């Protein structure tokens, strides 16, 4: 282990981990209020390999708030979607898993395909500063994004304002579609969110260590094992 990497990852002796609570596929609260899921287990594995004094899981309501913590030095590592807009402050590993993102449309919608969405007058509900919101912000040319704070709020906004489209992670939309008679999920995906591990940009030795860690946990089958163990349906080990 590179002593510089360990020093960068454990400046307090405890591994401080930024956790996006908006990603219900990878982390949830148990009955006692503790966190469990793929992300907490991977955090514990990193801490074990580093010989950390402990792990401090720092929950944030959404990915945008996690990203904000990089510049402030609140966390040492974070589990978050890798996005160019975040890379100015965060050094990302390659993805350890990916989650498809697509659209849901209400009953009676004339929108049939992904290509039909990016048209003038189409309004899309999205979770502000989520990885898929950032992606759509870069790629949409005609449709309008209407933002809400958090994934549940984006669904509420979609219904309340009678918007044309709800964007989201496919596993989440699969549950939302059951709440809306006649609603449909469009075939395909507009992107796959690349879930990665990040560390503050200046910590170059830490970033190199985390890159090796991610390569190892994919090759060893640990990521696949944790996906199955926690029943994280709809996510895949990243290529």
Descriptive notes:
With 239 residues, this protein is of the alpha/beta class. It has 8 helices and 13 strands. It has 2 domains: 139 residues, 3-Layer(aba) Sandwich (D-Maltodextrin-Binding Protein, domain 2); 92 residues, Periplasmic binding protein-like II (D-Maltodextrin-Binding Protein, domain 2), CATH 3.40.190.10. Helix 4 links the parallel strand 8 and strand 9.
Short description, anyone?
The chain has helices at residues 3-9, 38-50, 63-72, 131-139, 151-160, 170-176, 204-219, 222-229; strands spanning 14-20, 28-29, 35-36, 54-60, 77-81, 90-92, 97-105, 123-127, 144-148, 165-169, 184-185, 191-200, 236-237. It is of the alpha/beta class.
The gross shape turns out to be elongated
Structure classification = alpha/beta
CATH homologous superfamily of the largest domain, by name? Periplasmic binding protein-like II
- Runs with pLDDT <50, length 5+? none
Largest sheet: 11 strands, mixed
SSE topology:
Blueprint: H1 3-9, E1 14-20, E2 28-29, E3 35-36, H2 38-50, E4 54-60, H3 63-72, E5 77-81, E6 90-92, E7 97-105, E8 123-127, H4 131-139, E9 144-148, H5 151-160, E10 165-169, H6 170-176, E11 184-185, E12 191-200, H7 204-219, H8 222-229, E13 236-237
Parallel strand pairs: 1-4, 1-5, 8-9, 8-10
Antiparallel strand pairs: 2-3, 5-12, 6-12, 7-10, 7-11, 7-12, 7-13
Helix pairs in contact: 1-7
Summary tags:
single chain, 239 residues, alpha/beta, D-Maltodextrin-Binding Protein, domain 2, 2 domains, eleven-stranded mixed β-sheet, two-stranded antiparallel ribbon, 8 helices, 13 strands, 33% helix
